[in-house]
UniProtKB/TrEMBL annotation, chains A, B:
It holds the Pfam family TGT. This is Queuine tRNA-ribosyltransferase. It comes from Rhodovulum bhavnagarense. Homodimer. Within each dimer, one monomer is responsible for RNA recognition and catalysis, while the other monomer binds to the replacement base PreQ1. Its cofactor is Zn(2+). The active site is at 93 (proton acceptor), 267 (nucleophile). It catalyses: 7-aminomethyl-7-carbaguanine + guanosine(34) in tRNA = 7-aminomethyl-7-carbaguanosine(34) in tRNA + guanine. Keywords: Glycosyltransferase, Metal-binding, Queuosine biosynthesis, Transferase, tRNA processing, Zinc. Residues 248-254, 272-276 are annotated as: RNA binding.
Amino acid sequence: MTAAFNFEVKATDGKARGGVITTPRGQIRTPAFMPVGTAGTVKAMLPDSVAATGADIILGNTYHLMLRPTAERIDRLGGLHRFMNWRGPILTDSGGFQVMSLAELRKLTEDGVTFKSHVDGSRHTLTPERSMEIQRLLGSDIVMCFDECPALPATDDEVARAMRLSMRWAERSRAAFGDRPGHALFGIMQGGVTRELREESAEALKSIGFDGYAVGGLAVGEGQEAMFGVLDYAPDCLPADKPRYLMGVGKPDDIVGAVARGIDMMDCVLPTRSGRTGQVFTRRGVVNIKNARHADDPRPLDEECACPACRHYSRAYLHHVFRAQEIISSMLLTWHNLHYYQDLMAGMRAAIAEGRFADWQATFHAARAEGDIAPL
Amino acid sequence: MTAAFNFEVKATDGKARGGVITTPRGQIRTPAFMPVGTAGTVKAMLPDSVAATGADIILGNTYHLMLRPTAERIDRLGGLHRFMNWRGPILTDSGGFQVMSLAELRKLTEDGVTFKSHVDGSRHTLTPERSMEIQRLLGSDIVMCFDECPALPATDDEVARAMRLSMRWAERSRAAFGDRPGHALFGIMQGGVTRELREESAEALKSIGFDGYAVGGLAVGEGQEAMFGVLDYAPDCLPADKPRYLMGVGKPDDIVGAVARGIDMMDCVLPTRSGRTGQVFTRRGVVNIKNARHADDPRPLDEECACPACRHYSRAYLHHVFRAQEIISSMLLTWHNLHYYQDLMAGMRAAIAEGRFADWQATFHAARAEGDIAPL
């Protein structure tokens, strides 16, 4: 492996940026959407299929992997890439967010978090140092700082306390990460929807210095308007020459709005999870394949989509296998949703490169306003 | 489509036969194993992947498809091949066996069977004529006669009664099927484990005349020894120039023993169902991937297997995703099992063609006697 981790902005259009992140495991075209591979698999997809949708990078979850099969075991088996057969870059989260949302009997101190596993009830501790160690054992290409994302609703005082703790943890994460050529460490901005706290957080992170900067603590129930309110200024507080990653976002229109505000990277379980529950994302909005109106419909989900679900199958078939609870339903709908998300990113990248992102956005919203194709 | 349905025996070695069935939708190399695609999908597999394992033909279940999404709907959508995106030949069963094993409130008369759907409780009737109609609507390439397979244990009188009813239904099936160039109708021999009844059934079927002949009523709990006892004489009662299909079989050693006794075609849910329950078939016997001894094992299931599960993943990974109930576990283990079954058939076809089937069988049994690779 070469030592390089690098980000280059190749084009801007308004606040939107198109660029390339270079890692020893391959390039990531930005704006990039990262499918989530929680427990060593992007659910219902083979890695070659994930790559075929156009994904350059996937995300792995420290919390899930540390509990099962454990980071030490994955390390013994040659690291997460080999374990799950994904050749491209992998970003891992720090475990902090999911400890707060999934684990039981959490106890938060200055040092870190102790908790009980939701899998088998065993006790564990996550600290900035342990999170860095786990992400190193996994072989992550892009490592995230350990942070605390407070649950909503939270008072301003609570949000400020959590942000300042996260900034102290960011410093400890930076120190524990050390110098690992070819691997990147991203800081995470916190501060809820309060501008002063967001600015304070950005300054703290910049004074530590990271390879990239995430906007954390959004998409946790505050709503799109409040989220966009933060994104109207937050990316501008971060260094222009580093990637900006909006964590856990989102719906297609969230993603488009975030890119328009200067975000370069995103991840979300929505396309994969929705694939398993029969919610399908298309150019013309969301289609619920369970709906009886599809039962006799010979048309594909989207005639312009090149994914296997659209090329080879009718809505009637997809409706049937969803109703019959066949595994192929999750396989095909997940593939379609990931393909749609990657098409969306590719469309934005091309539009930004050609300076027509405003037009592209207008077309995007017009197709959605039109709605799904008429029933037969 | 051309009109041809044809079977040619190309080689024999002892009683074992190697040949080719030609259909308008493609050739079927025999001995052939047919993966089961119950409800319009070979569970957890995309059709291209099924074909990639080496399968020339798959099986569809009339009982499941008539209830959901219904044969009429599949017909309106262009037939089963287009519906499920399988380009090769499809054999459909008659519904008779599964009505007896799955449906509720069955009532059997000379005319047929009335029953309540296990899906939604709706009432249905299957007769020889309706079964032929459904299989025609599905667009099946190889259609099976409607028969009654009595549940075990059954008295000799009961087996004889069911066999004779099945022979009368075979005559009605033949009449209802009519003349459909390019489509084949197979008769089904019944008679349990009683030689006289099997011979009587074979004579009845031959006097009607079919494009192929199945041995039914085996693999229903009688045990391998009793099954092989019937197969020692039953195939010889059937025309040598037509394919012989052993329904619902079986484990790898059942399949090898059946081929050695002159069987050309088989089907079974075992490789697909076992793929979902973590039972893996290999040259060296069955591996239970759930077993903790695989948790740290970096070796593939079988180093000589070329399937994606063996080429790209460790036993440790397969153990992990099975334990975590990830869909990729069913996808990879089903693919491996189907690949193994097709490798088995290809090995037998080559051995028969080269007149070394006895040696091949000895090697097959020796590898299994050796057992799975030693724990780490």
